[in-house]
Design brief:
single chain, 335 residues, 3-stranded antiparallel sheet, 18% strand, binds S-adenosylmethionine, Methyltransf_Superfamily
């Protein structure tokens, strides 16, 4: 093991400060790159970078580079366990034999990697506004031997929504946890519709307002129990509770609201429901009983929480749909 690898592995294991993690990670990735393993190219679309791009370049979902392909694969398995029903609702990864897939907002490459190792896709494109996330994705793909013959990485800008792809270039589009962070999600949806071929399908996740996260975690745990941001409503505080307090944009949608946006962009859309986070399952056990009897909690939230039912797997449901934060939509471009 080289010195850079030793540092990177220690930092990764003991979870020291993010800046040190990133420095050690970069040193480790440089060593790998010098060895000349196959890695996809990162090309940049034109446009100026704004506060959204800068935030996501400095704030990574999982900052430490993986040291081995097995570790990277295990993380994907952990991610499905951490978010019950994510796999089922999103349909990831599917077969996709011979298809071209776009992962819009690929971050550090979770699903680009998943598509590369679990599907027969001919071409996989990961696009994101974050330079650091794309560098991690590139490194991770090289661990799996997924090179430029099959995978492309493209750096976008939040300000310029025109995608650098041809009409109908993709058979499948996936976008997990991205569009609620974008300045102009309507314009991005129009572009995703343009680059998907007629008859092509996709899977999109945006934060679900009809969720335990919104009505219990934000409205009661954060604002009332912890007394944070006095005077703010759950709608006002929500964006500070998901991806870091300073995250410039983090919206949440009701199912019918986002289906309307998808239809406006030209898609046929079906709302599958909100997959759960372990955080929400814990909040149901620890906080639900306090919240429903607390008169400081606005009636909208108390009624929502009182109306929840459990499914056979003890997962909370609102009406016929699961009440997790991961609002998932299956889409199709009519063809
Ligand atoms: C929570 S992460 C999700 C990453 C990845 N999809 C996953 O599931 O692991 C959100 C990602 O959206 C990206 N993002 C934010 N705004 C964007 C925009 N306007 N266009 C494309 N990507 C964007 C961020 O850089 C970040 O990588």
């Amino acid at each position: 093991m080289t010195r850079a690898q030793r540092i990177a592995s220690k930092v990764f294991r003991f979870g020291i400060v993010p800046r040190a993690k990133q420095r050690a990670g970069r040193a480790y990735m440089d060593v790998r790159a010098r060895r000349g393993g196959p890695a996809p190219e990162i090309r940049s679309a034109s446009g100026d970078h704004n506060a959204v791009d800068d935030y996501w370049t400095g704030h990574l979902v999982n900052a430490a580079p993986f040291l081995t392909a097995r570790q990277s694969e295990r993380y994907l398995e952990w991610r499905f366990r951490e978010y019950p029903l994510f796999r089922e609702f999103s349909g990831l990864y599917g077969a996709h034999d011979g298809e071209a897939i776009l992962d819009y907002g690929c971050g550090p490459g979770n699903d680009v990697t998943g598509f590369a190792i679990h599907t027969g896709a001919r071409r996989i494109v990961g696009a994101d506004v974050s330079a650091s996330a794309l560098a991690l994705a590139r490194h991770r793909l090289s661990l799996h031997g997924a090179g430029p013959d099959r995978v492309d990485l493209v750096r976008l800008t939040d300000d310029r929504t025109a995608l650098p792809f041809a009409d109908g270039e993709f058979d499948f589009v996936s976008s997990q946890g991205v569009l609620h962070h974008a300045s102009d999600p309507r314009a991005i949806l129009r572009e995703l519709h343009r680059v998907l071929r007629p008859g092509g399908e996709g899977s999109i996740m945006v934060y679900n307002r009809d969720s335990v996260w919104f009505h219990l975690h934000v409205a009661w745990e954060v604002l009332i129990r912890d007394g944070r941001w006095p005077g703010q409503t759950a709608d006002e505080a929500f964006h500070r509770t998901t991806d870091g307090e300073d995250c410039p944009i983090a919206n949440c949608y009701r199912g019918e609201e986002f289906v309307a946006l998808l239809e406006e962009a030209g898609f046929e859309a079906r709302y599958a429901g909100g997959y759960l986070s372990q955080w929400e399952l814990r909040a149901m056990q620890e906080s639900w009983g306090f919240a429903i009897t607390d008169e400081r909690l606005a009636p909208e939230h108390r009624e929502f929480l009182r109306g929840l039912r459990y499914d056979y797997g003890h997962r909370p449901m609102h009406g016929d749909l699961h009440a997790g934060i991961g609002g998932t939509y299956r889409i199709r471009r009519p063809g």
